[in-house]
Design goal:
about 650 residues; alpha+beta; 14 strands
């Protein structure tokens, strides 16, 4: 999506801002200026007053490229688009945090109440349109400004194209652009996760496919939209529909110099290993972090990822104190400042991507995602030897390993430094299907779309097959014909040792067996201990339990209780009475706490009728014994028949004749 040449604000002058609707998409729009004396300053924030003072500082510092990472280029105007992720201060005050706090998850099981996203979100995303204007007449030869969209949602498919409209529009007409864009966004319908939406902006139209609910941080609203069929380990029917975050990231273009290492990066991201990504520019490091997160779709990514991380982030002070050899918290950090190579020596995996010669592009050469297009010199796909052994390549690899990541201080190169023993072998059949078309930027971009689709489909299938052995823990059951729907079975408890023992006997499955090395079981062992497993497993299991509860609840509504009890011995009839009573009390508790289902009144009436039906077939002495409980007697009131209990007042008990 590019800005329409005829885009105008005149046709929308009557559009009024709806603050409540705006918050469903955007926290605020900010204009940030780099001041020579005072540093980064927020000139405007619309709507005002939505950020704390600490958040304003963090947003301001994150909205400009690191000066250390920028190379001299004297053309007049440079634009770039990138994004960052910061922790919200209402939820976590800035302080030194431990690794367990960095990965804390909301592990509530079945949320029913819908609270605002602002109260639930622990992170905020900032999408930046940065403009550097070089002018020798100005102090230091130029000026910088950034237009920033702040949101609780990582909707890159929406906010990157929106920035391509909003950024140039602001530099054309000033602050009126913020008010106009905010008013237009407030007119949008609420986000529908997993669906393609058409969102009007003036006389332009954004078409964006939002990520599915199961890839987003859990809150009451997204949880209710999830279904068992849309989540791993089940392969989706339509694989062209996005299954995770940042499905628009340029996986091929970002990692084209490291394609053989994609399977290693997939493993590291899967098990939640700390990774430092270094690139010459913010757009390149953002695209790399987004690509890594998207690589493990449809797995819920619970690793703390920062597409553009700076030394001003409050958590840097904690990370900087970690000594070499100390355990680094599970994070993926995208940086451009080479200082991090020395400051974060304890991080075990370092990835260098991008090309310094493609630092910035003129406005006419930017791709729609804000990433750098064009072929990085020396790293074209034809230069990637997959079948031939090259002594030169081997010597270069040995030298790179010997020099270590600090060699990037003198010369930028694409490389990975990691001692991790990978269990997955690169799939050369997938690499051989990729197309190299370094003829022109237009052909290059279209071929990247094809290559990205090939890679994304493969890793989607790879992740889904890896998660397949957990499938039995998420299967839903329904009552068989003639059986009681009131005895809903509980799910089997998960034991890591038992799971690994069974998996070792059974094997990883045909798809993975031919792609994995002999240490494949270690990958599962690391995954079980990593930060991604338990949040995904508990959430996936909660969705399955919710689905099973819905199915059994519907079966209880349709149950023919007289027919059931006609085939039961007396002891089972008593058990059935107790089971119906438990379900009835549960429904009443949900009504009292205002978490009831829509049809709760109907099912309560049905359960009361069923309870009376079972009660009336029980022997008189059993009825009198049951009525000794005042709560139970209250449930059974309402019928004209009067039953006299010894030493107690009269209690009305309903009688329903067996059919």
């Amino acid at each position: 999506m590019s800005r329409s040449p005829s885009f105008s604000v005149k046709s929308e002058v009557n559009v009024k801002l709806d603050p409540e609707s705006l918050q469903k998409w955007v926290v605020a729009f900010c204009i940030i200026r780099f001041d020579l004396e005072q540093g980064q300053l927020i000139e405007e924030c619309y709507p005002p007053g939505v950020l704390t003072q600490d958040e304003e500082l963090e947003v301001a510092f994150s909205s400009f490229p690191d000066s250390i990472s920028q190379h001299q280029n004297r053309s007049s105007i440079h634009d770039c688009i990138f994004f960052f992720r910061v922790r919200r201060k209402e939820i976590s005050q800035p302080r030194n945090v431990s690794s367990s706090e960095i990965t804390e998850m909301d592990d509530s099981k079945l949320p029913r109440s819908k609270s605002s996203l602002a109260n639930k979100s622990k992170f905020m995303y900032g999408f930046v349109f940065n403009r550097q204007r070089h002018d020798e007449r100005l102090r230091r030869g130029g000026e910088q400004k950034s237009v920033v969209i702040l949101s609780h949602s990582p909707y890159s498919t929406v906010f990157k194209p929106l920035l391509q409209i909003m950024g140039p529009l602001y530099f054309d007409i000033g602050s009126r652009a913020l008010e106009h864009i905010a008013a237009c966004v407030s007119m949008w319908p609420a986000p529908i996760t997993g669906k393609q939406m058409e969102l009007p902006i003036g006389n332009a139209l954004l078409k964006a496919h939002l990520p599915p609910a199961h890839s987003l941080p859990m809150d009451g609203e997204t949880f209710s939209k999830e279904s068992t069929s849309s989540m791993a380990p089940f392969l989706p029917n339509n694989q062209s529909v996005p299954q995770g975050l940042f499905h628009d990231s340029d996986l091929f273009g970002t990692f084209r110099g490291l394609l053989l290492q994609l399977w290693l990066l997939w493993e590291l991201q899967l098990i939640g290993e700390p990774i430092l990504i270094i690139a010459p520019t913010p757009p390149q490091c953002c695209e790399a972090v987004a690509g890594l997160v998207s690589l493990v779709a449809p797995l819920l990514c619970s690793v703390d990822f920062r597409p553009y991380f700076t030394i001003h982030d409050p958590e840097f002070s904690y990370l900087n104190t970690l000594q070499e050899g100390a355990t680094f918290p599970p994070m993926v950090l995208g940086v451009t400042n080479l200082f991090f190579l020395k400051a974060l020596r304890s991080i075990p995996h370092i990835v260098s991507v991008g090309n310094s010669t493609a630092n910035r592009l003129p406005q006419t050469s930017r791709s729609s995602s804000g990433s750098v297009s064009g072929t990085p010199e020396g790293f074209g796909f034809r230069q990637l030897s997959l079948k031939k052994f090259s002594p030169t390549n081997l010597l270069n690899a040995v030298k790179l390993r010997r020099d270590g990541p600090l060699s990037l201080m003198t010369e930028h190169k694409e490389a990975i430094w990691s001692t991790y023993p990978a269990a997955m072998k690169p799939d050369t059949s997938i690499l051989n299907r990729l197309i190299d078309a370094g003829l022109s930027p237009r052909v290059e971009e279209s071929m990247s779309v094809v290559n990205n689709e090939i890679l994304r489909r493969h890793f989607l299938e790879l992740t889904t097959n890896f998660l397949a052995p957990f499938g039995p823990y998420f299967r839903t059951t329904t009552p068989s014909e003639g059986s009681s729907p009131f005895d809903e079975p509980s799910r089997p408890q998960f034991s890591a040792d038992e799971f690994l023992a069974n998996l070792s006997t059974r094997g990883p499955g045909k798809f993975l067996a031919k792609r994995m090395r002999s240490n494949w079981l270690d990958l599962y062992r690391r995954f079980l201990k990593g930060p991604n497993f338990m949040p995904w497993f508990e959430r996936r299991r909660a969705v399955a339990e919710q689905e099973q509860h819905r199915l059994w609840r519907q079966a209880r509504i349709n149950a023919d209780v007289p027919r059931l009890i006609s085939k039961m011995p007396e002891l089972e009839v008593v058990d059935l009475f107790n089971a119906i009573e438990r379900h009835l009390l549960r429904e009443m508790e949900l009504q009292e706490s205002r978490r009831a289902y829509v049809d709760s009144v109907t099912i309560c009436q049905k359960l009361k009728g069923d309870l009376l039906t079972v009660f009336n077939v029980l022997p008189k002495d059993m009825q009198q014994l049951l009525l000794l409980n005042p709560q139970r007697a209250s449930l059974l009131r309402g019928s004209p028949e009067v039953t006299k209990l010894p030493g107690r007042p009269l209690v009305q008990v309903g009688v329903i004749s067996p059919r």
